[in-house]
């Protein structure tokens, strides 16, 4: 590959908000405030919010939106394909938010077209939260752009090459409309990681040679699934168990590992150009999901530096949830013990011992889940450049690159995954309640799984 994918350099002020997107998109974003009128209604201090996807992450994002300290926000509409899930979220958010919650029954929408009805409750300049399974991101984002609505969308925002190309094109369109778009890679808003990034870029660790990250723990979410109940619709089942299906989420790999991969690439200030990987399924009993339960990926950057990602979803094994960086002058902790607090540190040499500690972020760390919303609402109210789509799409693509390398047994490059024609769910925008699902089970109730070395041009057949 002649041109390595790069992450743009950022100054000290901008990185405390987010690492700006690269290339022409960053330039367009910077110019958009001067070229396009403000998108939030003049004279209005209240940013209205619609929640699309009312599961745990969506409910959490809505709570973060309603908890901002800058400006005023109000939740006015909710949508989901499952009524019970919407009602549980509705009750929780109503109880916690008082006057900031205004979602009567006629603004609760059930079904695959509910996102349109929820967005239609907003005015241009308000914000829609997209927290459904990732397969639906581009569909919902397209409609939000048409309506002039700002967006916060959960990660990952794509699951394969074709959906990434769609999202990149939509991102460019959203910039032209001066829309503010946040992507739920909240680690980019972490103040501790931001200071560590500044120190690395200033040369305190010399050249970054190796990065490594770990997410190893027992099964969580819907990563492993038992056979579908006989009385349950196939499509409902696959959406409800979305971590188990590559079309819906990119599987556990994309949904679980993207944060660690992304924060390592941030510190390197570049995207890797290729990946090779191994993975497998072990003592899985009658589980029917498409996931491997162990993954090991070697990502290579243009300068030859490496990022090693290790993921395992098994009970009874050593657990670790952390990211590290190794340079020619020392080593660093990027994150420890899940996503927050990060507890960033720099050590002289490669032994991370107390006596070798030369810097740590030794003040309280603001919650990055809250910070990403403070930054988004600030941008909406004050018309500041804020569009994370390109960076979010590329982070999602790089994650998919490692997953595809493991699932096919091949070396996969950035260009190859971007240009791949295997779209997991090409008709996701046409799905209907009770309709057919993108993949079908065989007579034993099992779904196609990756077969490295046998199926090499796509992740399953």
TrEMBL record:
It comes from the Bacteria. It is an enzyme of class 1 (oxidoreductase). Keywords: Oxidoreductase. GO terms for molecular function: inositol 2-dehydrogenase (NAD+) activity. Its EC number is 1.1.1.18. This is Inositol 2-dehydrogenase/D-chiro-inositol 3-dehydrogenase. It comes from Anatilimnocola aggregata.
